[in-house]
Amino acid sequence: MRTLTPMSDVVVIHTDGGCTPNPGPGGWGAVLRYGEHARELFGGEPTETTNNRMELTAPIMALETLSRPCVVHIYTDSTYVRGGITGWLAGWKRNGWKTSAKQPVKNVDLWQRLEAACERHEVEWFWVKGHAGVADNELADELATRGMQAAMAEAARG
């Protein structure tokens, strides 16, 4: 039987990622909240990447930032991330990291890293509609944009 955890004991994370163009330089962002504490994270990839890779990178970086095992609620506007981690991952692993169509799973390196990052914690995943006025989702989007802009500037410097 699962015990209920008070919300004050839950780390709430909102994540986002993207790139322009897709593929192209990308950025990711995450907002972590624990009680009254908040932390903003962002970064980018100046070489060619994809929206999906940046969407995966955001929760990885957020989870890897946590210094001890926690109960975590992760909110993402990516059905790819939520569907993959809560549903498809088990089948991919069972099939030797192949899809149901027998094709190699894309971004397998990040899926494996995300799975490992989740193992330390008790993680629940939630989907939230993007650009719908959810304050921390909007902030995660702004942070991802900041990471993408820094990546584009780095790419332009060569």
Automatic annotation (TrEMBL):
Gene3D superfamilies the record matches: Ribonuclease H-like superfamily/Ribonuclease H
Keywords noted in UniProt: Cytoplasm, Endonuclease, Hydrolase, Magnesium, Metal-binding, Nuclease
CDD domains cross-referenced by the UniProt entry: RNase_HI_prokaryote_like
GO biological process entries: DNA replication, removal of RNA primer
EC number: 3.1.26.4
Domain RNase H type-1 as annotated: residue spans: 7-149
Cofactor section: Mg(2+)
Entry's localization field: Cytoplasm
UniProt xrefs under InterPro entries: RNase_H (IPR050092), RNaseH-like_sf (IPR012337), RNaseH_domain (IPR002156), RNaseH_sf (IPR036397), RNaseHI (IPR022892)
Record's GO cellular component terms: cytoplasm
Enzymatic reactions: Endonucleolytic cleavage to 5'-phosphomonoester
Family: Belongs to the RNase H family.
Free-text function comment from the UniProt entry: Endonuclease that specifically degrades the RNA of RNA-DNA hybrids.
Subunit field text: Monomer.
Protein known as: Ribonuclease H
